[in-house]
Fold:
Amino acid sequence: MKIHLFSRITVFAILFLSLTNFQCKKESTDKFCKVQRSQFLTISNKEGMVVYSNKYNRYAVSLTIPTQNNIDTQVIGFICELPPELKTIGLRVMVSGSLKKFNSDENMTPEIAGQDLYFLETIQISKKQ
Structure:
């Protein structure tokens, strides 16, 4: 009888812990990647460099792209879910995807004069060979 009671307690404890573990997991409060933004420019197989913004605590890709809005051609594309093997500041990458404009309520401002900030929705990104 003691073994049977021990088994019930063990099963109950495992069930309780697993259920409370699932309930304690919070949905990510980072909605940065889910915001709807308008498309600015499509890029295909463009060379860039991985950078990190301390201001926004995010990885981005620095690209040289002439734009109508800026005589400097420095474009910073903030990226979601950068693969771990590419999280090296200064790494040269090849990227294809879309640059999207930040919404006015997102208050994204450059850290350095001459930068244009965009959200970079990637189709493909890889280390430059």
Remarks:
- Confidence is low (pLDDT under 50) at residues 13-28.
